[in-house]
Write a structure and sequence with these properties.
It is a single chain. With about 375 residues, this protein is mainly alpha-helical. Helices cover about 75% and strands about 0% of the residues. α7 packs antiparallel against α8 and α10 crosses α12. The protein is elongated.
């Protein structure tokens, strides 16, 4: 099993090198390096413990395991944060790890006589307080990861308000990694519980399975983290829209209503109707939806209005985010093209690109979402009539 750990550490070194070689590194890249460093320490200490258990490698292994999760959560929140800055309120991610660190220092310094026998006992059959930290940490992690999935869902909703093509910034890979971590922490909880009750005899097997899963998971995270290059642009746009919204709210709210200043700023109905009429003209007469990377800010510039006002108008009039509104036009345009016999000589992808779609993967998913059929199924069904 040490071979797997050594290979894992080697790959971690390669990933860290690639991250450091990235152009225009951001704060999230350095946090991703921290995640990899903690994983490397976890694997190194596990290898060391199998050869010799001492106080130092015991502490390193457990602190690395406890801090690995909040480091990942900080990385994930940085990716979806509008300002890409670490926030003080995220400190609670580290609360369990910090609490355990303090307890570990007090226990090793003042409470427990540290020798080989006591360390083996702590490692293989921890007392009640250690059980609380070990099991509680895993429950705490699962709860926070479920909370993070909710934050990712809200992020998806935000990007749909400003983009018609979201694949490069959708972060599905981060959602997948989070689900993997929920599974691993759940298995860890029950694996160690079964060991404590005697159903599992060899604790090293539990560590081997879990650490292998963590290694594969962090490889997946690092690979996609290195490839993530479009989030900075999106976060900058969202930051601009948020600032515009705050300015608008400040201008409208009376001094005696400042306590309600976080309410959503609304436009007069007449202005909403006027903006929407201009939008329909661009979509129906100029067919602007054929621009594959159409964004709210580009459309707002053409209409000479605030991107926030434009996004809000579309949502108010249609009940849909910008993403769904634009793709509804693209689907309708492609459907008409697929119905024409003279277009059978062209590939479906070429017709889709001419309708504003950006890729084959997004085409099939979006088209099926609107029609319950793939484009090829729709074409075959139409000509079979």
């Amino acid at each position: 099993m040490n071979t797997i750990y050594i290979v894992g550490i080697s790959f971690i070194g390669v990933f860290m090198l690639f991250i450091l070689m990235k152009n225009e590194k951001r704060l999230s890249d350095y946090v991703l390096i921290l995640v990899n460093v903690l994983l490397a320490l976890l694997l190194l200490s596990t290898i060391w413990i199998e050869k010799e258990l001492n106080a130092f490698n015991f502490i390193i292994q457990h602190l690395a395991a406890f801090f690995l999760f909040p480091a990942f959560l900080t990385y994930g929140m940085l990716l979806i944060d509008q300002k890409h800055q670490i926030k003080a309120k995220w400190a609670w991610f580290f609360s369990f790890a910090i609490g355990f660190s303090i307890f570990l220092f007090i226990d090793f310094a003042f409470l427990t006589e540290i020798n080989e026998e006591s360390l083996i006992r702590l490692y293989e059959n921890p007392n009640l307080i250690y059980h609380f930290f070990f099991k509680g940490h895993k429950i705490f992690a699962v709860i926070l990861l479920l909370w993070f999935l909710k934050q990712l869902k809200q992020y998806d909703q935000r990007i749909k308000s400003y983009y018609s093509f979201i694949e490069p910034i959708k972060l599905k890979w981060l959602k997948n990694f989070t689900i993997i971590q929920i599974v691993l922490y759940s298995l860890s909880f029950f694996g160690f519980l079964f060991y404590n009750f005697g159903f599992i005899q060899d604790i090293s097997k539990v560590y081997a399975i879990l650490n292998s899963g963590i290694v594969l998971g962090v490889f997946y995270l690092s690979f996609h983290g290195i490839r993530q290059y479009n989030l900075a642009q999106f976060n900058e746009i969202i930051k601009t829209q948020t600032e515009e919204r705050n300015v608008a709210i400040t201008a409208e709210v009376q001094s005696e209503e400042t306590s309600k200043s976080n309410k959503v700023f609304s436009l007069p109905e007449a202005k909403i109707d006027r903006i929407y009429s201009d939008v329909l003209q661009l979509f129906e007469e100029e067919q602007i939806y054929k621009e594959s990377n159409l964004k709210v800010n580009f459309l707002a510039e053409k209409l000479e209005i605030s991107p926030h006002h434009l996004s809000m108008t579309i949502n108010t009039k249609t009940g849909k985010p910008f993403y769904d509104f634009v793709n509804e036009y693209r689907v309708a345009a492609l459907k008409e093209k697929l119905k024409m016999p003279e277009n059978k000589q062209f590939t479906i992808l070429s017709l889709a690109l001419d309708s504003g779609f950006n890729s084959k993967a997004s085409l099939n998913r979006i088209f099926k979402q609107h029609t319950q059929l793939t484009p090829s199924q729709f074409q075959k069904t139409h000509f079979a009539k």
